[in-house]
Amino acid sequence: MWYRIPFLRLTLLLITGIVIHPFLADRGYFIPNALSLPLLSAGLVYLVIAGFWNRGIIYSGLILGVTIPLLGYLAASLHHDKYLEQVAALEKTPYTAYLAVVKSLPEKRQSTFRVEAEVTKIRTETGWVPAPARAYLSLPQEAALLPKPGEALLVQQQLKRPPEPLNPAEFDYRRFLRFKGVAWTDYLAPEKYRVVPFPARGPRYWSSRVSDWADRSLRQSLQHDDAYGLLKAMLLGRRDDLRNDLIGSYSTSGAVHVLSVSGLHVGIFFLLLSLGLGWLKKYPLGKYLYLVILTALLLFYALLTGLSPSVLRATCMCLVWVVAEVFNRRAEPVNTLAFSAFLILLFDPFALYAVGFQLSYLAVLGILLFYRPIERLISTEHFLLRYLWRATAVSVSAQLLTFPVSVYYFHQFPVYFWLVNPLVVALAFVLMPGALALVIVSLLPFKALFTVVHVVVYMAALATNWLVTFPSRLPGYSAQGLYLDRVEVVLLLVLILGAYYTYRRREWTTLKYLAGVALVFFLYATTHSLRTYHRQQLVVHAVPRHSVLSIKDQSTLYLLADEAFRQDTNAYRFRLENYQIQQLIQDTVFLAPGGQGTSSRVVVRQVSGGTLVAWPGGTLYAGEGVPSAAAVDYVLLTSRTYPRENPFSVQSSQPNEWSEPSRTLYILGGQMGVRTRERWKEILAQQGYRYYDPTTEGALVLR
């Protein structure tokens, strides 16, 4: 079996090298390029000579096993070096303004528009100097002037590094952007920037213009907001005009993949084109004309979607597929799939860490491996039932390999995906070509044709939007709060692929190895869950504008926070939700300041001026001022008021136990302003007390 899929082995070796790089880089270890490049060259030369002379075959496998991972490591290292050059170019040079060329259409976020930009110059004391860097720029939604791709922005301020995660299990936005090659971010107030003339050129500029034109055509053709938002998401990959509750319905029904242009959309487009142009392959030179036309149309579709990375990856996958077919090299689909992944990762190694890349390739691999065995389980002659079963088999086979990764990233699983996905995919075969046809016929003077296409697309869009809301009416429609770590994801994938290998080769002796893997998975998951369940800890979280304290007691999380935090759902989702899922929390209890609560090992009670929390690890007082009672281990200051007088001097005439600098640690709450925070630090330093600032040092975890 392995000899038929050589590129799968090569791709796995390449991935090994790519994964090694950030593992070492995050720990401060690097293999110098000056060393890895000669080693790589020597290995490749040896493999060429051994292959030409048909000698040294015994050692070729070993050399290959070292050379290809080294190739992956070197590719990742070169991309990482470019990222570090971006950082160094702006961090080491003082500047007051920068010039950035917009590379993407504005993407609507919750309260801003975001664009990707290429910084070209910065203004220093000596004038404008080149400083190439990539950045994500955010503009307020009420801004009167939104830049278009190809336009340049002159910004009168400095760029900022993406923030590092300050809380346990918080999403690492800086690392996420690092793998995209983006080193900087900025928020542009309207008075801080202006659009300046700039000669726009290049494929991305043309692509953005085409995508913007298609968007305007869809908006003019469809007045219904939900129908327009769905078609825009499916055709152009931009879902900023879809309502949040509708996006949630797609997510809980397991059909959210249709809202992001990816392998499914390109696959539908590719399938329709290949069926429509298949007659060309009957002629002597027809297959080459088929290849040229299909390639041109796929590239046009990629241009229409703004050349997004997910579309380019899927387009590359389809092109490799059709080239292999035309030149009679389509012996093993898995090998062709692995070859496309090898090419993509060789030129963009950090695409490996894109969720879309992982889910797309795992879904296609799952379909290639499991569709036939599942489809053969039921046989029927009825056309409609046969189609529904085959569509269900496709959905189930795609989910088999993607569900561990989906749970790892999104912590939920749609229970009724098998009920909705076949119908949604069927409607996608109408919506995808229909949306493209609607854009094209809007240019033509045939009103009757436009009306027919409009009605078909409009009705299909409404049916799709209604269909995805159906599972939410059923009991237990979505399993929420699921958690798998990386080890568990890998073990699950090994189990699933091992089961397929056993089925395919009929080597039932491998079942004992699968049983061993299953036992390891069970022991690891059980041990991890028990340790997490019995772990007790108190965390003072780093949440801007809020003071948030959490106490974990078995599967319950007690939250002591200001009232505004309970209304700030974004802060909770971004700062605490992943931590809650990671700690296997089943119940969350909000305690208002001054509230009371008791568990087996945690006592929360109201005291004079604040709240006292006692747990086996110590005691903590939370209040607006310094306490005047018995000593505690920690004090969380929650005051927003600037302390003009030293609060400790008020108690100086009375003997108290708060003058034990080695005993008490003062924690500055996140709701404090900058001046208030600095004033408290000054006061505490004068008194000789220790203090901790979560906004700069990260959350304080106490056990």
Mean pLDDT: 81
Distance between the termini: 52 Å
The gross shape turns out to be globular
Strand count, sense and barrel status of the largest sheet are: 7 strands, mixed
Binned, the helix content reads 40-55%
Beta-strand residue percentage: 15-25%
Return the structural class.
alpha+beta
Q: How many β strands by DSSP?
A: 21
Radius of gyration: 29 Å
Oligomeric state of the chains present here: single chain
List the uncertain runs.
652-659
Total of DSSP H or I helical runs spanning 4+ residues: 22
Description of the structure:
With 703 residues, the chain is α+β, with helices and mostly antiparallel strands. Helix content is 52%, strand content 16%. It has 22 helices and 21 strands. The strands form 4 sheets. Strands 1, 2, 3, 4, 5, 6 and 7 form a 7-stranded mixed β-sheet that branches. The radius of gyration is 29 Å and the shape is globular.
List the topology elements.
Layout: H1 6-25, H2 33-53, H3 57-91, E1 97-102, E2 107-108, E3 112-124, E4 127-140, E5 152-155, H4 173-179, E6 184-187, E7 193-196, H5 203-221, H6 225-236, H7 244-252, H8 263-277, H9 286-304, H10 309-326, H11 333-347, H12 355-375, H13 383-410, E8 412-414, H14 417-441, H15 447-469, E9 478-480, H16 486-505, H17 511-534, E10 537-543, E11 546-553, E12 556-561, H18 563-567, H19 569-575, H20 577-582, E13 587-591, E14 597-598, E15 603-607, E16 610-615, E17 618-623, E18 634-637, E19 665-668, H21 674-687, E20 690-692, H22 694-697, E21 700-702
Parallel strand pairs: 4-6, 12-13, 17-18, 18-19, 19-20
Antiparallel strand pairs: 1-3, 1-5, 2-3, 3-4, 5-7, 8-9, 10-11, 10-21, 11-12, 14-15, 15-16, 16-17
